[in-house]
Specification:
The protein is α+β, with helices and mostly antiparallel strands. The protein has one helix and five strands, in the order ββαβββ. It has one helix spanning 21-33, and strands at residues 2-8, 11-15, 37-41, 50-54, 60-66. Strands 2-1-5 form a three-stranded antiparallel β-sheet, with no helix packed on it. It has a two-stranded antiparallel sheet with strand order 3-4. β1 and β2 form a beta hairpin. The longest helix is centred in the first third of the chain and has 13 residues, at 21-33. It is elongated, with a radius of gyration of 18 Å. The two termini are 16 Å apart. Residues 81-88 have low confidence and may be disordered.
Length: 88
Amino acid sequence: MYATELTIGDHAYLLRAGTDERGVLDELTAAVRAGGGVVELPAAAPNSPRSVLISPGVPVFIERIPIPDDLPYTDDGDAEDPCEEWAL
């Protein structure tokens, strides 16, 4: 499983899980080819979409950040909260 972060210019946006990444990139590309345009991004929170103005020359990066299924931790019995022992 992974999270998808889209960086446009100096701003990073976390995309909602299950987002059609190819569709978002196609919309961004179409806006650039048209000389600029507004693209609505599916934000991480369901009720907080973001609109971004895209124009030629604006750097756009997409990054897939792996999220481990199980965060490893060691339980030596000394910690009150096992979360204190997580090793990321």
